[in-house]
Amino acid sequence: MMAAYHASRRGNRVVIIDRMRPPGQKIPLSGGGRCNILPLRPVEPSQYVTDSSVNIVKKILLSWPLAEVRAFLSGPMGLKLIDNRKSGKVFPLFGGGEEVRNHMLAVVRQSGVEVRTGSAVVDIQPSQRRNVILENGDSIVAARIILATGGMSYPQTGSDGTGYEIARRLGHSIVDPYPALVSLRGGSPEHHKLAGLSIPVTLSVGKGKSRTSMRGDFLFTHRGYSGPAILNIAHVAARAGEGEDSPTIEVAWSDKTSVEWEEILAPSGKTVRGVLKEVLPDRLADLLLDELALTDARTATLTKGDRKRLIAALVSYPLPWRRTGGWNEAEVTGGGIPLSEIDPRTLRSRIVPQLYFCGEILDAFGPIGGTNFLWAFVTGKLAGEGAASD
User: Fold this and answer.
1) How deeply is 317 buried, as exposed, middle or buried, from its count of CB atoms within 10 A (0-12, 13-18, 19+)?
2) Torsion angle, CA of 69/34/384/356, rounded to 10 degrees?
3) What H or E segment, with its residue span, contains residue 287?
4) How many structural domains compose the chain?
5) Claim to verify: residue 141 and residue 160 sit in the same structural domain
6) Is residue 93 domain-shared with residue 208, that is, in the same domain?
7) 367 and 290: one domain?
8) Does one domain contain both 193 and 256?
């Protein structure tokens, strides 16, 4: 929609083709329906995950700074926005994702864009004027084409990977897609009994220079683990694969270091349970002590070995995850069209003339908090203006 709007504003005849009725099905799903439309503060390009150069991500994001994107949404798009300073997110003042989608679609139509829904594109035939083949056998001849099919997350919204196949047939390579911003499955029945418990933690995965750490809220669920910290690190697990060789995700249940826990657990008249519950939620403290068979332990009688096991469980607990929540739960898709195969100034393909890409189909995604809406808006504008001025 953003690409179509900006292309149309430059005097072009623009058609949106979407298999869904109405288009923009992911917008109502965002933020649990509340629609976290932007981050409140500028995002560092290094926070985006890509197999390509972070410098390309930086060039793209700097082409339309966050403040200007927000001004556009509040101005020409006519959306009233409100800040949530605690979470660092921006939301619509009224309604949620469905209202945002309907409003944006109305503005796009008013700009002169034709919106054709219920039409699935199955292929693009290369020629000087591209032939867009539809599922029902019809075709549309276009001077320029912007491929904005999304990735593979939430396939019920229409993003089932078709765009990757079309791009591959046209000569583009694809960074293998993987689910990102996704929950993890696993854990014992005792873990599942803590469903609903949320706690700030630090998660770490990998070793040496490849080690990644993430601080944020962690949520126990009936089937595994979720929350911002999990969602922002799960792509590492997804890419590494599942099974016996799956990477270990370590949890530090508080901001205390090993040295600090040594001091906290120094011999005294207190029970270990009592000491832990001064820092951790009661149910989590009980769970950890039950797993370590230290339920009745006292700080004064802890053996050296038990103390070492306990502190390890507090600062580097191996999370027993088994698999990700998969494409049906992944908020975004990692992988896609390599950024090296597009011109970062226009998002024009370096391989196929008159072909452009924007949004989730590109190999880049950001952390939760509106960063992927921002990516969609910025790349949409670049692709729309690039195609219009070609």
Assistant:
1) middle
2) 120
3) helix 282-291
4) 2
5) yes
6) no
7) no
8) yes
Residue with tokens 């985006």: 48
Q: Within a domain: residue 311?
A: yes
In a domain, 192, yes or no: yes
How far is it, in rounded angstroms, from Cα 337 to Cα 344?
12
| 329 falls within a domain | no
Measured distance CA(225)–CA(187) in Å, rounded: 8
Same domain? 282 vs 301 = yes
Q: Are 323 and 146 in contact (CB under 8 A)?
A: no
**Residue 23 CA: distances (Å) to CA of 27, 202, 320, 362:** 9, 38, 39, 19
Are the CB atoms for 356 and 145 separated by under 8 Å? yes
Q: Is the pTM of this model over 0.90?
A: yes
Asked if residue 295 and residue 152 are part of one domain, the reply reads no
d(CA 333, CA 339): 15
Tens of pLDDT, residue by residue, the chain (390 residues): 999 999 999 999 999 999 999 999 999 998 888 999 999 999 999 999 999 999 999 999 999 999 999 999 999 999 999 999 999 999 999 999 999 999 999 999 999 999 999 999 999 998 877 899 999 899 999 999 999 999 999 999 999 999 999 999 999 999 999 999 999 999 999 999 999 999 999 999 988 888 899 999 999 999 999 999 999 999 998 988 765 578 899 999 999 999 999 999 999 999 999 999 999 999 999 999 999 999 999 999 999 999 999 999 999 999 999 999 999 999 999 999 999 999 999 999 999 989 999 999 999 999 999 999 999 999 999 999 999 997
Measured between alpha carbons, how far is residue 324 from residues 154, 157, 158, 243, 247 in Å? 14, 20, 21, 11, 12
* Sole residue written with tokens 């992927």: 372
Domain interval for residue 15: 2-178+334-388
Q: Are 150 and 194 in the same domain?
A: no
